[in-house]
Amino acid sequence: MSDKENTELATGALSHLSVELDAFRKENERLRNSFDFLMKELNELRDENKKLRDLRFSDDYKKHWRMVYAGQAMQSIIETKPNFKDVAEISKSAFIVADSMIEQISV
After folding, report:
1. Are 72 and 93 within 8 A, CB to CB?
2. Which terminus of the chain faces fewer neighbouring Cβ atoms within 10 Å, N or C?
3. Per-residue pLDDT for the chain (107 aa), expressed as one digit of tens each?
């Protein structure tokens, strides 16, 4: 093989390697951008989870679930005792049940 052929072969190989290296650099940049995006999303989810966990112990949160549970209990009381007409007594009973449910899940 002549020097000219060797030079052309080396130049071709170098050109091919340069193209591959450029492709690797672009892929590395895409992966780095994906990683940065995923880390940002993960941090946002972690922060949201912390907010929800803190909110879980707030008075508004407890009040909300007390009302939900009392409403569900009230439906059950009315369904099982249709002749029971004392609305105040039904409400008291429903909130007693709701408070008991909240106490059980808070343990």
Report:
1. no
2. C
3. 677 677 777 787 778 888 899 999 999 999 999 999 999 999 999 988 888 777 766 777 788 889 999 999 999 888 888 787 788 888 999 999 999 988 887 66
Tokens of 103: 């106490």
* Token couple for 107: 């343990």
- The answer to whether 97 touches 66, Cβ cutoff 8 Å, is no
What the block records as the tokens of 56 is 């879980």
Residue 20, both tokens? 């591959």
Bin 86: left if φ > 0, else alpha if -120 < ψ < 50, else beta. Answer: beta
H-only helix segments in 1-107:
3-56, 59-80, 87-106
pTM: 0.45
Burial 41-72 (b: 16+ CB within 10 A, else e): eeeeeeeeeeeeeeeeeeeeeeeeeeeebbee
Q: Which of 94, 89, 86, 103 is nearest to 69 (CA)?
A: 94
